[in-house]
Design brief:
It is elongated and about 120 Å long. Strand 9 and strand 10 form a beta hairpin. The strands form 6 sheets. Strands 7, 8, 9, 10 and 12 form a 5-stranded mixed sheet that branches. Strands 2-5-3 form a 3-stranded mixed sheet. 27% of the residues lie in helices and 29% in strands. The chain is an alpha/beta fold. The protein folds into 3 domains: 64 residues, Trypsin Inhibitor V, Chain A (2-Layer Sandwich), CATH 3.30.10.20; 76 residues, Trypsin Inhibitor V, Chain A (2-Layer Sandwich); 86 residues, 2-Layer Sandwich (Trypsin Inhibitor V, Chain A).
Amino acid sequence: MKNLFAFLKSRAFFKHLGIALVSLFLLFWIVFKGLGYYTHHGQTVSVPDFNGLKIKALSEFVQGKQLKYLVIDSIYDTKRDKGVVIKQEPEAGSRVKQDRTIYLYVTSVMPPRVAMPKLEDRSLRQAVGLLETYGLKLAKPLKRKPDVCNGCVLNQEYKGKRIAEGTLIERGSEITLTIGEGRGGSAGDVGVPSLIGLTLKEAIHKLNDNNLSEGALIGDPKQKSKLDTAKAIIYRQSPSPGEEISAGSSIDFYLTNDKSRLKSNNDSTQQNH
């Protein structure tokens, strides 16, 4: 024990202790310096704006910017050019470390495809609902054909040819339907339903139920603000409710965002009668 205490007080102990502390300090300094170099500590760059760039221009765009990029998703948008950046993470102007990967979202070059549903032998209303579910559109005008099943879908066509169930087709394509018109195809026996107060979507569904189609969309001339068709209501229609017209005929809609027009239109109608 005495020898241990004597050694701890000796110059040799303090000499070795000093060497150990200096070595430990140098080791930590080298490690932290190495980590700083490896992680580019304190070295940041500003993220450029990738939005609107074509995919083929990205590699040239990032040259010299000390950044990387990765396209992680594509989105189909008919209102934008194909194959361009529409979103990025992190956003433009952010400060990031050198060699950081910027994640990009681009518009699809090719539209997504869906399997054509079976619309034949269904009612027109069911067919329209299925088209909306699959992201397809109903071509106008509808085709009519005399058939015992009034209002049933007899044939489904794409670009003038019948399209079979399950056929892959681009989303957003228009499908032409042939609808049964009742035995003998008699015309002039469809009563015009009242669409007053309905939204555009509600009115179209009601027309489909009655073997009628959508006609012209006419905005309210008395409305000062821009017409919002998604929220607009019908304050007038032509032909008027109760008239007898041919099956497949179209109804013109008069749209407004001003609900007070319903009352004024009803008042004028009563005065005319």
